[in-house]
């Protein structure tokens, strides 16, 4: 069950996908080490320019001859509303002051058309550079984009947080679907439901219900950190796992030191959902920023507007190792996180999985 | 792994515990059928009088010679505040009017001392009637209660929703701990954390983190409906499962028909947490009552005050099969629920589990 149609399709040895964490985590060292260790390394390219993407793909090809993949954010339509930006800035300016940042009033934010055009450029680079696998978060690309990627024999992976979203991914022609349980850290990949925070579904419930309703391979994501999580996911009907937090604390990951250290020192009770950092719901470790913004979070601008607004705050907080104002994305299993090499992580997962199989 | 120290301790054939759902679900037919089919049947006695408890225990002994257990609610201190009751009634009276119920102003509610005395009476009956297994929800009983139960060789099962709560259960002398993931239907068993709703932990994360931190056997609960969930739980390190919703829709369960029918017709997106029915957080299928009370739910009286206040509403709604004002407790896997006999459910779980083992 650990070697199956999914591992065959992706041409990987082990059914382990490194989650495409955006924002500097997926260094070429991390991605190549995952692929070289038998898993699937993924570039989290959501926030990257087409030029940066091309550069990293080329670099990766010198570091691994195994397959790797890339993840893109499907742009959702959004509006830039100046009044909302000013209200948000009124909440953010006291934080800026604490961090010795200048206050802000308005902000130059690219509009939806510009964001969409960048997405199309990103897709073009993926095709031109022959990346074998491309995954999507926050939605399903247009028929045109899908058909162009398919013409180039690129394997497509969608993201779903409900059965309905998984079914839509299959209908649209995705080859594989990553199913994100409520345990998952970072951004929620939901794209159908808006009244969202109150009915996130846990993996134990979500995976088998999705498996019963799609025929493409399902990858379980959320809270999976070791061989136990891998084997549990396989029992629930998944063909493999996608792991974020477990790779984030690895030596090779590009995550900020304060971010890694915080994950290594908190418990399963310490994460919560917030939309205050980016305008989209995401799970991170509770800190002053999340708590301070909590009562306002329903009224903040949407993604990517709010994300742009908080950029200066996140950046300076990271540079000062100030964990109270960074986005400390983490799934619900921080007690299982370790600082170790990718190779050791993957080897441990597979040897633990084999032990579980043997003792079954 | 399906026969282990937990099944040996409880003297059961299969590692399946029927969740002790309170409020009329756990008929003697249900409980005895579970025990007769190789699982552990449990009386949900939280709302039962000592006399009712004694009667059902005696009845069960005529229906099964296998072990069965009982669950009691550990009373938490509460205050009866008349102003809060009047505010709550102002919200509930328009609903009463819709259901042709008379409006209410004040209400006779037993105080904490009375509730606690009833609990001590319940414990006494459990001891006198030699029930071999007793589980607890909403807290850990006093040292005195625990030592009296242990003197009678009664096996004690605690309930936890976090690692901290599981550790407290072990320290207090519980023999086994049920660990309730965020997927679970009905009342949350939390008793340490109050700021609760925002950091519920999913089973995929919670089970292995608890297993790593206690040495007593862990039972997984929440969203488990079939052999896949059982095997996944075992992989995560649990020694067995406790299942509620899967038994609730069984032929033998005493749940209201409208309740069963609703579970059989909704999806994983349709449940949410509410404290509007009872004053404690619980997961149920979203209906008009939950939605209508949602903006007020943080201010409602605590358990059991709010529970007593909504009693007339829930009762008349149930009698009219009006699902909009009943507490439709359900876990997050309603798509996996079936109307079937207990025997068939348990046999299917075990044969599916064996198949998974074989194909591993």
UniProtKB/TrEMBL annotation, chains A, B:
Superkingdom in the source lineage: Bacteria
Keyword Metal-binding: no
Keyword Oxidoreductase: yes
Cofactors that this protein relies on: FMN
One term of GO molecular function: monooxygenase activity
InterPro entries linked to this entry: Aldolase_TIM, NMO
Protein keywords: Detoxification, Flavoprotein, FMN, Monooxygenase, Oxidoreductase
Catalytic activity reported: 3 propionate 3-nitronate + 3 O2 + H2O = 3 3-oxopropanoate + 2 nitrate + nitrite + H2O2 + 3 H(+)
A Pfam entry, by short name: NMO
Gene3D superfamilies according to UniProt: Aldolase class I
Family stated for the protein in its record: Belongs to the nitronate monooxygenase family. NMO class I subfamily.
Physiological role: Nitronate monooxygenase that uses molecular oxygen to catalyze the oxidative denitrification of alkyl nitronates. Acts on propionate 3-nitronate (P3N), the presumed physiological substrate. Probably functions in the detoxification of P3N, a metabolic poison produced by plants and fungi as a defense mechanism.
The protein's name in its UniProt record: Probable nitronate monooxygenase
Protein source organism: Bacillus carboniphilus
Taxonomic lineage from the root: Bacteria, Bacillati, Bacillota, Bacilli, Bacillales
